[in-house]
Design brief:
Layout: E1 2-8, E2 12-18, E3 24-31, H1 38-55, E4 63-70, E5 73-74, E6 80-83, E7 88-91, H2 93-100, E8 105-110, H3 111-122, E9 131-136, E10 140-146, E11 149-150, H4 182-185, H5 187-199, H6 205-209, H7 219-227, H8 231-255, E12 259-263, H9 270-284, E13 294-297, H10 304-311
Parallel strand pairs: 1-4, 4-8, 9-12, 12-13
Antiparallel strand pairs: 1-2, 2-3, 5-6, 6-7, 9-10, 10-11
This protein binds zinc ion.
Zinc ion (ZN) binds near residues 163, 173, 177 and 182.
Amino acid sequence: MYFIGVDIGGTGIKVGLTDEMGNIISSGDCPTYVELGYERIISDMSDKIIEVVNNAGIDIKDVKSIGIGIPGVADVNGKVYYATNLKWTNVPLGELVRKKFPDKKVKIENDATVAALAELHIGSMKGKGTGILLTLGTGVGGGIIINERVFSGAHGIGSEIGHMIVGENFYDCNCGNNGCLETFASATAIIKYAQKLISEGRESIILEKAENDISKITARTIFEAYKEKDEVAQIIVERFVHYLGIGIANLVNVFDPEIFSIGGGVSRAFDFYIDDLRIEVSKHVIFKDVPFGNIVPATLGNDAGIVGAAMLGL
Ligand SMILES: [Zn+2]
């Protein structure tokens, strides 16, 4: 049996055909013409699916399912409530794809959840039944896998790990709340905090590394300064670790997964903070004598989207 996995992003659509082990047999991509509306995107995606199946020399009858990862939130029937980068609200994606491929199972999930499934099948969480992926990038995304199945709640809107409220912060989250994990543990969060400290007059080599332009500070410049024992960078990274530790401890206390995987841009600095992060998590877990799931860096790159989406069909 074969599986189709689709990764719809704001700039491109990737389609892959996999076997039941998640091995990619054939793949292809095309641009996402956001301005032309969802009908065009779904039409381009469907053409690409047929092309990818034909290129593999297999019959579409042998494809069991079509799984799709979207940068947004969908309900259990595949209606996309919203996908900001695609400018979609209430798009009946599942229904429209089922019309084009009537005999296929069609499943639609948030792209971070899909990436978590890929990590579980062929990446950093391989061999585990229950695991949680946190992606620390522009925002904080996440995916929860329980007994090898994605968990997104009864209405498809759960597993918003980045919007767990873990403290009070000096700026509000895009979602309207204050204190979301995303505002402490994303690349955006640490950049904003660095900009705040430096604009308050703290001296730091972070500014030199950013060509003395506060708007050019990146997560990379902060971690480089941290490596060179810059005092402000130490404060920033300690705060990041503190709140990320609280977030992960909350997940331990609620889900007790076998493993945590950290992905996204900020995971490149994993070695700098992992030891302190484990200590911070251990301070906030309730059952201190019981070990908690290991925290590892994510291993999958670009193909995580299509492999994870394909594995939705298992
Ligand atoms: Zn939020």
